[in-house]
Amino acid sequence: MKHFTLSLLLLVLVSSCSKNGDAVQPSLPESMYFPSNSSSTWETKSLSSLGWNQAAVQPLKDFLIQKHTKSFIILVNGRIVMEEYFNGQTATGTWEWNSAGKTLVASITGIAQQEGLLNISSKVSDYLGTEWTSMPLSKENLITVRHLLTMTSGNDDTKQYVVKQNLTYVADAGTRWAYSNIFQKLTNVVANASNKSFETYFNEKIKNRIGMDGFWNFGTIFTIYHSTARSMARFGLLALNNGKWGNEQIINESYFKESIAPSQSINSSYGYLWWLNGKSSFMIPGEQTVYQGYLVPNAPADMYAAMGANDQRIYVIPSKKMVVVRMGDASDPVNPNFAVSGFDNALWEKINAIVK
């Protein structure tokens, strides 16, 4: 009797999975793909398999060319859906990240903390010594590593050169958000805390572990990373997975999630050197105005982004398991930007016409 009951149950299950006599296999979520660190091979996925609008691709390409783009990549679940190069750029050509590279600095700072080399709640002077600024010592001692990560150190943001005489007092640390190059002092913090050059530590802990190429260019105005677009996409894929690469947690997950959440109450659209969409208000570089609404209205609300001058971009969209990379010259050469620009909204209008 038990055998008969079991056989009947199996028959019912098989019948319920059938349609017109053919067994219907339940669709499983597509796995996340991570390209090999030792090979140039990268899996692809067609637009048609995603049900995307092929007719909207050419208008997007025309827009990218018109806006002086050199490299453009879309990943879904880690697989390349679009990869385009324009204006003489190739897959092996490097380009500068500009301030999009701030997110690399935030990530390596988090790794140094998880290894017990530093604490972001500690004073910057614990790692650089006192009088690293021209502020009164009582004001300098208010600045923590977290303040450098959140653009709230209180320094004069109108002076671009990161030299001691330019690091002057405007407000107490934590009371004013202002986009500034002072974040570059984090590279000195990490170097001193790790007892290695910043680039050596970065290469060991991020670059080599996720198969990036590229190099750092250190200057008194800007500290800039240069790489291929695919290496930018690799870092975007790491960010999409909350600091995890394959089975290895590169960046502590809780720290990474802190990085992509509002880091202070002044500019809710800013994390630890990451820009955040979907918040009720935002600020932009060079201003103290608080604007109402989303940072990029046309983009998904859950998007977080690495944004650099002349429209260097990594957009990360968890809800779509998608990463978008754009590298190139300024979209508007007459009015180049430091980070956020109207280009983002216009680009997302074109992307939305494709993505379904």
TrEMBL record:
Domain of life per record: Bacteria
UniProt-listed InterPro entries: Beta-lactam-related (IPR001466), Beta-lactam/transpept-like (IPR012338), Diverse_Enzym_Activities (IPR050789)
Keywords linked to the UniProt accession: Signal
Residue ranges annotated for the Beta-lactamase-related domain, each copy included: 71-326
Signal peptide: 1-23
Protein name in the entry: CubicO group peptidase (Beta-lactamase class C family)
Native organism: Acetobacteroides hydrogenigenes
Record lineage: Bacteria, Pseudomonadati, Bacteroidota, Bacteroidia, Bacteroidales
